[in-house]
Amino acid sequence: MKLSALAVLTPLIILSGCAAQKATSGQTTPQAAATTQPSAAAPAATSGKTSLAEQGRDPAEFPAYVEKLKAQALAQGISQQTIDSTFANLHFVDRVINSDRNQLEKKITLDDYLTRVLPEWKIKQGQTQYQNNLPALQRASDRYGVQPQYIVALWAMESSFGKIQGKEDVFSALATLAFEGRREAFFTKEFMAALKIVDSGHATADMMKGSWAGAMGQSQFMPSSYLNYGADGNGDGKIDIWKNTDDVFASTANYLSKEGWKRDQGWGQEVKLPAGFDGSLAGLKNNQMHPASYWQQMGVTQVDGGPLASTATRAWIITPDDTQGRAFLVYDNFRTIMHWNRSTYFALSIGMMADGIMGAQIPVVSGDAAPSAPLAPAPRNPFSG
Question: Where does the record locate the signal sequence feature (predicted)?
Answer without folding.
Answer: 1-19
